[in-house]
Amino acid sequence: MKFSLVGVLIAAVVATATPANSGCKQIQYQFPSGSGNPERAKAVVDAYRRVYGEYEKYCFGKDGLQPISKTCDNGSLWGFGGTIIDGLDTAIAMNLTDIVAKGLENTAKVDFSNVTILVELFDANIRIIAGLLGAYDLLKSGMFFNDYPKDQIDALLAGAKTLATNLKPCFDTPSGVPASFTNFTNKQPSHKAQNTAVVGTLILEYFHLSDLTGDDSFAALARKAESYLINPKPAPKYPGLVGGQVNTDTGDFLDYNFGWQSGLDSFFEYLIKTHIYDPGQDRNSEYLNFWTLAVDSSMKHDTVSPYGFPNLKFLSNTDTLGNLKYSIDDYTCFAGGNFLLGGAYLGRQDMKDAGIALTDSCHQAYNTTLTGLGPLTLAWYNENNTAYNPAYNNDTALREYATKNGYFIPPEGFSAVYFSFPETIESIWYAWRITGDTRWREYNWEIFKALNTTRSEDIPYWEILNVNKPSGGGAWNSLSTYFFAETLKYLYLSFTDPEVLSLDRFQFNTECHPFLIQQGTCAVSYPRDYDSPRVYKQKLNLERVEL
Ligand SMILES: *[C@@H]1O[C@H](CO)[C@@H](O)[C@H](O)[C@H]1NC(C)=O
Ligand SMILES: *[C@@H]1O[C@H](CO)[C@@H](O)[C@H](O)[C@H]1NC(C)=O
Ligand SMILES: *[C@@H]1O[C@H](CO)[C@@H](O)[C@H](O)[C@H]1NC(C)=O
Ligand SMILES: *[C@@H]1O[C@H](CO)[C@@H](O)[C@H](O)[C@H]1NC(C)=O
Ligand SMILES: *[C@@H]1O[C@H](CO)[C@@H](O)[C@H](O)[C@H]1NC(C)=O
Ligand SMILES: *[C@@H]1O[C@H](CO)[C@@H](O)[C@H](O)[C@H]1NC(C)=O
Ligand SMILES: *[C@@H]1O[C@H](CO)[C@@H](O)[C@H](O)[C@H]1NC(C)=O
Ligand SMILES: *[C@@H]1O[C@H](CO)[C@@H](O)[C@H](O)[C@H]1NC(C)=O
């Protein structure tokens, strides 16, 4: 489709909301004005200020706070000031101007190339690079207060570019499938065993970085790595449901372990999000098509109900041969939101229905525990009333719990912990923004209150060891940086005006860092002064990508 300059100017003037019926895609529910709940939004902002205040007081500039001992971690995110960077765009969206000013000043001083320990591609990308780009986008968008020193805002993009440049040796493998770590001094890749999520959680950030810097080398590296995942060898057990481990020498898959759990999750997540971010960038449909294939297969072969609970639906974990294990980890709970996003974009009601059922089922796990928070791992008895692990078949306590709630928490390892997990809150937020049904944000309010209750006055937040014990069965001396990036952001966005970070204007990386959609949805089908330089130029040249 081509359009004239006159058309562009008119569209830019009139398109304060959504141009109707212009062939563009509408994702978010069209809320009437006044759909926010300012009081509840403010309660979340107060929680951010209270908990972040502890980090500022005891550990400012370091990576993280250990909230009970009030000691600091400065190394888990390479001493870059991980909590500041991961939380920055949330603070910008909340207009916490003093926190943002201090955070920008500190971040501008960080040297993203001076690290002696090994740097891990995955977390450096999703938390640091994406945190820097998310903050940069919000400050450049003109949608938020941005009267901060310009050189400090520009330092965000420069820092992301420096870090991504130093990470390039990770891709120095025979196939181009990245290794997990690199050493900034000798510039060698390290730790070659690789999972699918690490390889497949690059395209969104790396495309955006290339768009913003004009340097296409980042996009090229991510596209090459991704090419092995969407052309899987050997063929997976079901179309689109690729294995969990990739050989970095050949790009071949090493197992048949499929599903939407940790190790695979954000590979699927990014296929649809990167397509929506810019349909032209994925060569018009490669990623979208693979995502559709995977979701269709997942609905058919991986979506199961516990015995006696036909309304609950979970996307099961599998073993290395691809047999269902009738359990999920909490990470899987992002999938409901991802199905809803893609279903809304494609107009696929079956995907939206599946997304609602998956989200309701993860919510069930929160709603039925003593604390109101969900566990890391849950399992259930299958259609034949048996568990994957036979040890649980005759366990009376587990049987009783499952008969009541549909699932049980396996009595092993870290199954019962709640470590600030955002995924269920995330899917509930997508359900709210896509359906407009207010029951969803009531759920997130209940979860927010649950988060807020097991704390003491002098320790405003900690992570808990057992979601089914009074006061969480003990406190874990940790405050994950994603509590600020994701948990509190999804909660805030559940109550603030739905136009704030609208799904028609932003795509969120797997750590909830918002990137401005480049083209394709209704809200962005006209040039804006905050498009990336590449797309802005393209639009001015009136060469729109065919959709
Ligand atoms: C954290 O560690 C980094 C890297 O070692 C160092 O440059 C930085 O000064 C440390 N931050 C603080 C606040 O001590
Ligand atoms: C954000 O805070 C600044 C400084 O306190 C204030 O001037 C501005 O009006 C606020 N913006 C919004 C959108 O609330
Ligand atoms: C690199 O960091 C170390 C320790 O954090 C510091 O002593 C050194 O001066 C830094 N080097 C450069 C070139 O900035
Ligand atoms: C990184 O490489 C340098 C130079 O070869 C070496 O001295 C250092 O021990 C390496 N660091 C790590 C953490 O492997
Ligand atoms: C479960 O949901 C109901 C209805 O939304 C609510 O009243 C109740 O407090 C919730 N229970 C827990 C433990 O979250
Ligand atoms: C349940 O039992 C039936 C009959 O034995 C069998 O055909 C089916 O495969 C079983 N289902 C599962 C999930 O094990
Ligand atoms: C479990 O209970 C059934 C009867 O309910 C019994 O036949 C079976 O032997 C028991 N299995 C184990 C491992 O105890
Ligand atoms: C959250 O906890 C704080 C501190 O105990 C309290 O002041 C606040 O009212 C609580 N908020 C909600 C919504 O319960």
From TrEMBL:
GO MF, one annotated term: calcium ion binding
A single Gene Ontology CC term: endoplasmic reticulum
Recorded metabolic or biological pathway in which this protein acts: Protein modification; protein glycosylation
CC cofactor: Ca(2+)
Highest taxon of source: Eukaryota
GO biological process, one term: carbohydrate metabolic process
Catalytic activity: N(4)-(alpha-D-Man-(1->2)-alpha-D-Man-(1->2)-alpha-D-Man-(1->3)-[alpha-D-Man-(1->2)-alpha-D-Man-(1->3)-[alpha-D-Man-(1->2)-alpha-D-Man-(1->6)]-alpha-D-Man-(1->6)]-beta-D-Man-(1->4)-beta-D-GlcNAc-(1->4)-beta-D-GlcNAc)-L-asparaginyl-[protein] (N-glucan mannose isomer 9A1,2,3B1,2,3) + 4 H2O = N(4)-(alpha-D-Man-(1->3)-[alpha-D-Man-(1->3)-[alpha-D-Man-(1->6)]-alpha-D-Man-(1->6)]-beta-D-Man-(1->4)-beta-D-GlcNAc-(1->4)-beta-D-GlcNAc)-L-asparaginyl-[protein] (N-glucan mannose isomer 5A1,2) + 4 beta-D-mannose; N(4)-(alpha-D-Man-(1->2)-alpha-D-Man-(1->2)-alpha-D-Man-(1->3)-[alpha-D-Man-(1->3)-[alpha-D-Man-(1->2)-alpha-D-Man-(1->6)]-alpha-D-Man-(1->6)]-beta-D-Man-(1->4)-beta-D-GlcNAc-(1->4)-beta-D-GlcNAc)-L-asparaginyl-[protein] (N-glucan mannose isomer 8A1,2,3B1,3) + 3 H2O = N(4)-(alpha-D-Man-(1->3)-[alpha-D-Man-(1->3)-[alpha-D-Man-(1->6)]-alpha-D-Man-(1->6)]-beta-D-Man-(1->4)-beta-D-GlcNAc-(1->4)-beta-D-GlcNAc)-L-asparaginyl-[protein] (N-glucan mannose isomer 5A1,2) + 3 beta-D-mannose
Assigned protein family: Belongs to the glycosyl hydrolase 47 family.
Name listed for the protein in its UniProt record: alpha-1,2-Mannosidase
Species of origin: Cadophora malorum
EC number: 3.2.1.-
Keyword RNA-binding: no
Keyword Transmembrane helix recorded: no
Pfam families the record matches: Glyco_hydro_47
Disulfide bonds: C333-C362
Binding annotation for Ca(2+): T510
Annotated signal sequence range: 1-19
UniProt keyword terms in alphabetical order: Calcium, Disulfide bond, Glycoprotein, Glycosidase, Hydrolase, Metal-binding, Signal
